[in-house]
Amino acid sequence: MRVNSPSTFGRKPNVILITVDCLRPDHLRCYGYEKETSPHLDAFAASACVLENVWANGPSTAFSFPGIMASRMPFKSRSFGVLDAPLTLAELMREQGYRTQGFNAGNAYLSPYFGYGRGFDELEDFLEYQPAPSALRHFKQQERIGRKVPCWRGLSQRSLDGLARLAHALPWFERGAERVGRLWRPVLEKMWHSNRIRFKLNREGHFWQALFEWVGRNRREPFFLWVHAMTVHEPYCPPPHSQNAANGRLISQRRALYVRRVASAVNQGRARRVDPDVVGDLIALYDAEVHHVDSMLGRLFETLRERGWLDSSLVVVTSDHGEQFLEHGRFLHLASHYNEQLRVPLLIRLPGRQTGRRIAGQVGLIDLLPTLAELLGARLPEGGCEGASFAPLLAGRKGRLPDDRLYVSESFCGRHDVAHTVDW
């Protein structure tokens, strides 16, 4: 056990970390957005510290979360995740005497397969509600943390080379396959997107229900609660009331499937021109999903308030990365290192303090773990974190982070991640 220094708050507050996948700060009203997408987060921000310049260490979950949960750059590890990280946030909390509970709404990159179960008494990841084509298609369940189990990855290169020679030797076969592909692609894409929407709605219902049930029956304090919501992640399928509240109009399911297919075609280089209405509808669907997750977080805040925990807890709301809407020729989130994907929101509400402060200083998600450690009076191992604490900024004092500190973003680049120009 590490020796503790006195906590900033004089007692051990409950710590609640809420991460919302794909949430952009400039689509929240508390960050200056013109739409009413986030009334509950706006009310939360009024009594919290709002950090305006926060940067992720990767453009997607796999590359961003090592910074959040282990204060570690993604390429410092030999594999995805935090399997070989010196310390995780949940382990730190457990050493401080906290009960640790996690809820991951089915993001495969945040499963125990990648070490994110380290330090949790219980981590519910809802992967059973995921469709088969997910990140886990390249991995099998590890028999124990740290052990890799190889699995089938598809056709071998020799088989692919043989099929290529066959297609080259039979031009009529290649032309016929191309015609069939053009004919059936819309049908298969519609079936695939519809299947993903069905899985998402099923998963969302079980996720939020399990979270509210745990908050209602939990009696042990202090606790560390991590909630990772996938509501804003594509495929976008917001309920009608959220569409009306955010946009004042409804977008049909058929139209939503169409704009999602266009976005996929752009990312794969199969579309060179996009109708501006498609971009507008995709943004409208995204904003409605932001409103939907905001309403669910509002319900969570109300439940915590009824239990007497909201005002006495240290609550953090952030995201792992953002989303693109053709600002640089791409949709959604791929290996693109622009502000649309790297700038994230960060709201921190200190227990018993109604701050309502806005902090313009530049910080990174990699600084979150050492900041929480300093606030709780926990000592970190030498060299265990790559970030630095910005706790003085939350108290209104001059921080130790220089304004010109360099933040690095890392990711792999796939075959569809090369930038290309799209007209719209």
Layout of secondary structure:
Layout: E1 14-20, H1 39-45, E2 49-55, H2 61-70, H3 89-95, E3 99-104, E4 122-124, H4 157-169, H5 171-217, E5 223-229, H6 240-247, H7 253-267, H8 276-306, E6 313-318, E7 324-325, E8 331-332, H9 339-342, E9 346-349, E10 358-364, H10 368-376, H11 391-394
Parallel strand pairs: 1-5, 1-6, 2-10, 3-4, 3-5
Antiparallel strand pairs: 2-9, 6-9, 7-8
Based on the model shown, name its key terms.
10 strands, two-stranded antiparallel ribbon, alpha/beta, single chain, globular
Quick summary of this structure?
Helices cover 37% and strands 12% of the residues. It has helices spanning 39-45, 61-70, 89-95, 157-169, 171-217, 240-247, 253-267, 276-306, 339-342, 368-376, 391-394; strands spanning 14-20, 49-55, 99-104, 122-124, 223-229, 313-318, 324-325, 331-332, 346-349, 358-364.
Q: How would you explain this protein's 3D organization?
A:
This protein is α/β, with parallel strands linked by helices and 424 residues long. 37% of the residues lie in helices and 12% in strands. The chain has helices at residues 39-45, 61-70, 89-95, 157-169, 171-217, 240-247, 253-267, 276-306, 339-342, 368-376, 391-394, and strands at residues 14-20, 49-55, 99-104, 122-124, 223-229, 313-318, 324-325, 331-332, 346-349, 358-364. The strands form two sheets. The protein has an eight-stranded mixed beta sheet, sandwiched between helices. Strand 7 (324-325) and strand 8 (331-332) form a beta hairpin. Helix 6 (240-247) crosses helix 8 (276-306) and helix 7 crosses helix 8 (276-306). The chain is globular, with a radius of gyration of 22 Å. It starts with 13 loop residues before the first strand and ends in a 30-residue tail after the last helix.
